[in-house]
Amino acid sequence: MPHDTPSRYLAEGPRVGIRHFTLDDEAEFTARTRESKDLHHPWLFPPDTAEAYARYAGRLIGDPAKAGFLVCEKDGTKDGTKDGTKDGTKDGTKDGAAGGAIAGAIAGFVNINNIVEGGFLSGALGYGAFAHAAGRGLMREGLGLVVRYAFGPMRLHRLEINVRPGNAASIALARACGFRLEGFSPKMLYVDGAWRDHQRWAITAGPGI
Fold it and tell me: Is the whole model's pTM more than 0.70, yes or no?
């Protein structure tokens, strides 16, 4: 009798699945970070070297107050091809490096930081898309999966996203995933050399989540 193959993902939707970071993801993650600098600046500074990734992923893997999730594409449709091939390369790039949409390719990431248990049961979300996945709806699907996983297996009650007011893309994603604007905090976080104002968006567990 055939047996179902266990999924590599913690949760999955039609186009993406989510899984935890591993140290073996360094090469793809840092390459995609370097490709996405124009998209990320000045909002986001994910690791772009092996040493920085090891520190970053190590904290997400080893700290019980953190949980990191990679949002990965489930198939490789891009430019009308099934596997993302183009110009004789596996992933649609000239050198076969990080750029194309192949099965399992990392589209972005969602991290839950400052996880507090007890009567609070909350965490603070941070997230980012990579350039090849931007504008395709993949992160909306991925963030929704993380929210449901946090309120399900992780048994959290509340998630908060702190967003700089000018970051229209992140605000739109938070709103699209059901987060509500709760307030404004001046000079809340030290980012890119200065204390920055942030909006606070939040969602709590409940029916339909």
Answer: yes
> Are 9 and 17 spatial neighbours (Cβ–Cβ below 8 Å)?
yes
- H/E stretch holding 11 reads strand 11-12
Distance CA 88, CA 75 (A): 18
The rounded distance, in Å, linking the Cα atoms of 170 and 193 is 20
β-bridge pairing 122-129 and 180-191: unpaired
Q: What domains are defined for the chain?
A: 11-157 (3.40.630.30)
**What is the distance between the alpha carbons of residues 69 and 160, in angstroms, rounded to a whole number?**
16
Taking the alpha carbons at both ends of the chain, their separation in whole angstroms is: 36
Rounded to 5°, the CA angle 68-70-76 comes to 175
Q: Of 116, 120, 182, 110, which Cα lies nearest the Cα of 148?
A: 110
CB 86 within 8 A of CB 54: no
3-state secondary structure of 26: helix
User: Using an 8 Å Cβ cutoff, are 30 and 47 in contact?
Assistant: yes
Residue 171: CB atoms within 10 A of its CB come to 18
Amino acid at 76: G
The predicted-structure confidence for 24-75, as pLDDT tens digits, reads as follows 999 999 999 999 999 999 999 999 999 999 999 999 999 999 999 999 999 7
